[in-house]
Design a protein that fits this description.
The complex is a heterodimer of chains A (104) and B (317).
Chain A: E1 5-15, H1 19-28, E2 35-38, E3 41-44, E4 47-50, E5 60-67, H2 69-79, H3 83-86, E6 89-97
Chain B: H1 7-20, H2 29-54, H3 58-73, H4 75-84, H5 90-101, H6 105-117, H7 126-132, H8 136-149, H9 156-164, H10 167-187, H11 191-196, H12 198-219, H13 225-248, H14 253-264, H15 270-278, H16 284-314
Helix pairs in contact in B: 1-12, 2-10, 2-12, 3-7, 3-8, 3-13, 4-5, 5-8, 5-16, 6-14, 6-16, 7-10, 12-16, 13-14, 13-16, 14-16
Classes of the chains: A alpha+beta (104), B mainly alpha (317).
Chain lengths: 104, 317
């Protein structure tokens, strides 16, 4: 069986105009790899949202990255103060990876 | 009533009714974005060509100055009205006020169509005034937020970049300059794309806007009756000030009505994206709900004819 190592999977749902400042924090804490995914729509505290807005102000993007426990803690600490005010959803979960050295 | 029978307006009403009836009618996002780029290019080119034909005039400079001044100052009374009457906090009031100082390109395009149909075509340079009015309101809104709620200043680089090099401003100004350089002769070969197809594309875009506005109205939770009322009162007050300014500086009736339409309109493309970045604490459901779900339909259906009538009355007609 291929050996695996545990890492943290971080998912951040954020409005498109706020992606750039989030990525600055991500780079600051030393995360090297991530993926940005488009979204179709959903429902939250402020009601329904979808990507069919001409302004893009509420178009949401999903940030996905896998990293070490220590780096994930650092990233969560940096983002926690703005989660409420910036309307950000932050999820952290355990994930088993092959090639652990890619996800430090 | 005559204005309401225009195909452009009827398509808007169709979109709104379809969304209200929960029809699955939808314009794909990429098509809607393409249509908005097309409309901005066409209106910019047309304005540039008209200015190239008419040449420079003092009226051009005074219209530009009036537009910039209105855009910078209109957020101030709007801010206090939103604070006192709308009972909004400082950050939300500032974010919403910026939308009401800035402009809506689609409201302007629809207004120009309706004015032209009545033989009151505004001067071509009003397109440049439209582009100039996008930004000062954003600056005013951010200043109001800093003053009222102590919101810390953002890094100026990224904000300035987003504000001045905003896609709609770049395309409008760029197309205007291209029209100015190309002139009537240079424009003639591309006129079938940007002139002949213009009204049809506007109909499709307004169909999408009707769908978006009605869906936003149905889904928003941020609109209180007070705030919804202000979304109608603010454009009327601003539009009246715009018509008065246009008349005072001696613009022709069509241009004066266009300035009133610009002053009475509220941005829902450029400003929301900038405000989301600059004032992330403000509720986007509130400013988009007000500008897109209430003010835009109000202006398209009632505001444009009202501002036109005001410009005519103030000019003594």
């Amino acid at each position: 069986m291929t050996p695996t190592v545990q890492r943290r999977r971080i998912e951040i749902l954020v409005d498109q105009p706020l992606v750039r400042p989030i990525l600055e924090v991500v780079r600051d804490v030393g995360v090297r790899g991530y993926t940005l995914l488009p979204t179709l729509g959903g429902h939250g505290d402020s009601g329904a949202w979808s990507d069919d807005m001409v302004s893009g102000a509420q178009q949401k993007v999903l940030f996905l990255a896998v990293m070490s426990e220590a780096r994930a803690e650092l990233l969560i600490d940096r983002l926690t103060p703005v989660l409420e005010s910036h309307g950000i959803v932050l999820l952290s979960s355990a994930v088993d990876v092959v090639r652990a050295e890619k996800y430090d | 009533m005559e204005a309401l029978a225009s195909p452009v307006i009827l398509f808007f009403i169709l979109g709104a009714l379809a969304a209200a009836a929960r029809s699955d009618l939808a314009i794909p996002e990429s098509v809607a974005k393409g249509l908005s780029l097309y409309l901005m290019t066409a209106i910019g080119l047309k304005g540039g060509v008209q200015v190239a034909a008419a040449g420079y005039s003092n009226e051009m400079l005074s219209a530009a100055l009036a537009g910039v001044t209105l855009s910078f100052l209109l957020p101030v009374p709007a801010f206090y009205a939103l604070r006192r009457l709308g009972r909004l906090d400082g950050v939300n009031a500032a974010a919403v006020a910026a939308h009401y100082g800035s402009v809506s390109v689609v409201t302007f395009v629809t207004g120009v169509e309706m004015l032209t149909a009545r033989g009151l075509e505004p001067a071509g340079h009003m397109v440049a005034v439209l582009a100039l009015m996008e930004t000062p309101a954003i600056v005013a809104g951010l200043l109001l937020a800093r003053r009222a709620a102590g919101v810390p200043a953002q890094r100026h680089g990224s904000l300035l970049h987003e504000t001045v090099l905003n896609g709609s401003v770049v395309l409008l100004v760029g197309s205007f300059v291209i029209g100015l350089v190309a002139g009537k002769d240079g424009f003639a070969p591309i006129a079938p794309v940007f002139e002949t197809a213009f009204r049809g594309a506007l109909c499709l875009f307004l169909l999408d806007m009707g769908l978006l506005a009605a869906r936003r109205l149905r889904e928003t939770r941020a609109l209180t009756p007070r705030v919804a009322l202000l979304a109608v009162v603010l454009p009327v007050v601003n539009g009246t000030l715009g018509a008065a300014a246009g008349t005072l500086i001696g613009l022709d009736i069509g241009s004066s009505a266009a300035l009133a339409i610009l002053a009475g309109s509220a941005s829902y493309i450029a400003v929301p994206a900038v405000m989301r970045m600059a004032l992330p604490q403000a509720d986007p459901g509130l400013y988009l709900g007000m500008s897109l779900a209430v003010t835009f339909p109000f202006n398209v259906l009632f505001g444009i004819p009202l501002y036109t009538m005001l410009a005519q009355r103030m000019a003594g007609q």
